Amino acid sequence: MSPLPIRFGVLGTGRITRRLVADLQSTPGATVSAIASRCAHRARWAADSHGIAAAVEGYERLLSRDDVDAVYIALPPSLHHEWTLAACAAGKHILCEKPVALSAREVSEMLDAANRADVRFLDATAWLHHERTFQFRQWLRTATPQPDTALAAAKPDELFADESAAASESLGFRVGPLRHVSAAVSFLNPFQNGDHRLDRSLGGGALLDLGWYAAGMIRFATGDLPKRVYATAVMRDGIDVRVSATMRFADETTATLSCGFDTSTRKWCEIAGAEASIVCDDFTRPWADKPARSWVHEASGKVHTFTPPSELDGLTNSGGITAPVSRPSRCHQEREMISRLIGWIRTDASADVEKPWQQFHDQALQTQTLLDTIAAAIE
């Protein structure tokens, strides 16, 4: 007999809910039972738009409902801390939009509250759950790990390990000791009035909104935090619309971060080792009309084109594309993310059971810590 679905309630009715509510509704083992807004009319409109039975006025009322097992917090970043703590107090599991909060202190308090309440917490950073990301991790195992970081403690089903087909592929190359990581995320989009990304008090600015992805990739690749950071920003009306940062780590690895609201669309990264470099031009989300892919450039000049195993259809790994393919990625990273959270919710968290969510918590906390450090370093 199949277990009962996990019933999600949604806090917030903004544009960001459109995609993920549909993903919650289409993920096996999940359903959406209610959506809440501070305005009853807005809640009713959102519920009708998404085919959700219950429209709730007020976030407190949704947290008190017996037909809600978990919440998706889709509020501005300035409200994530408050409503995560409230959800923990109500015994609800949590999927929280990114950036997780306004500071590392807030993130730490949120994670501590979830652990004390024995509820599962996951930030909605979907690219971490794509099959391709675990392929990156397999390749990075050929780099020299930091013995005191999460990289050395990787276990199956965790962020820094994977025992699936994506990880079992014979590489035929080595990345070698890590030398440099670059990540850039931007888009050109004049925001409408009232968008929280233009309001500092709500958690606006390019660094928090887009820098979350770039900083997350740097932390993912290095498994560490830098010892020195230099940063600069272009400011408009008190909001950072473009940020650049350079950093150096204790092992002499370096990294650069770029993010902006006033630049053409970029979502790329390069992870450069002594023997090969991993390159990806869409790490946050595969381009809509292309399967997920990436490239490895060896020091010899040889180039490998890779797609994860589930994407192979007229494609050949390590030999490039053998036939034109125009279709979206088959690995649905949002559904993979939701499925992972559902699995955690159904996991006994007793002391003698591994807690795979801990490394995701570490990733979130150190990503926010890096953003705090960059913000403090801006000239």
TrEMBL record:
Record flagged with keyword Ribonucleoprotein: no
Pfam families cross-referenced by the UniProt entry: GFO_IDH_MocA, GFO_IDH_MocA_C3
Enzyme class: oxidoreductase
Entry annotated with the keyword Ligase: no
Record domain Gfo/Idh/MocA-like oxidoreductase N-terminal: where: 6-121
Domain annotation GFO/IDH/MocA-like oxidoreductase: ranges: 175-278
Keywords tagged on the record: Oxidoreductase
GO function terms (MF aspect): 1,5-anhydro-D-fructose reductase (1,5-anhydro-D-mannitol-forming) activity; nucleotide binding
InterPro entries: Gfo/Idh/MocA-like_OxRdtase_N, GFO_IDH_MocA-like_dom, NAD(P)-bd_dom_sf
EC number: 1.1.1.292
Descriptive protein name: 1,5-anhydro-D-fructose reductase
